[in-house]
Design goal:
Largest sheet: 3 strands, antiparallel
Number of domains: 1
Strand order of the largest sheet: 1-2-3
Structural class: mainly alpha
Shape: globular
Number of strands: 3
Amino acid sequence: MFRRNGEQLVARFAPDEVNVLRRVAAEVVSLLTDGFDHDDPVVSRLFPDAYPDAPEDSEEYRHFTEGDLKTAKIDQAGAILAALPADGGGEVALDAESAEAWLRALNDVRLALGIRLEIADETSLESELDEAVLRDPTSSRVFQLSVYAYLGYLQESLLEAMIS
């Protein structure tokens, strides 16, 4: 998918891929702006306690760092939205800074999806997807697991292009 072209990392996306990426990036932005709730397991995963055995220290740390972390996560998701072709599919070219923002945003999306889908680990993903397809290949779970797997592939492709 991603390949190095000089100083840029380039990939071509189909319209459906662009739509999926727009949707998941927008959902992260929405989670961090409209529905930000520390009791939400996804928020807890994206903003873990710095000091799990010391709640007061964690709260103090969160007080001083959460705003900047939240802004960075929103900006990273925004980097995906900004780089995607405006009308359907097309090519995306990322510089080093944008590529790093994409990697972090893809990681956040996968963490969020993993929590929502209750994915235990990467090794169980394939068997979960196979099982879901056998039960009902048209289910929303099959689509969501497929998106999760696709984002992992995209993240790996981008990382490999960055280090090549």
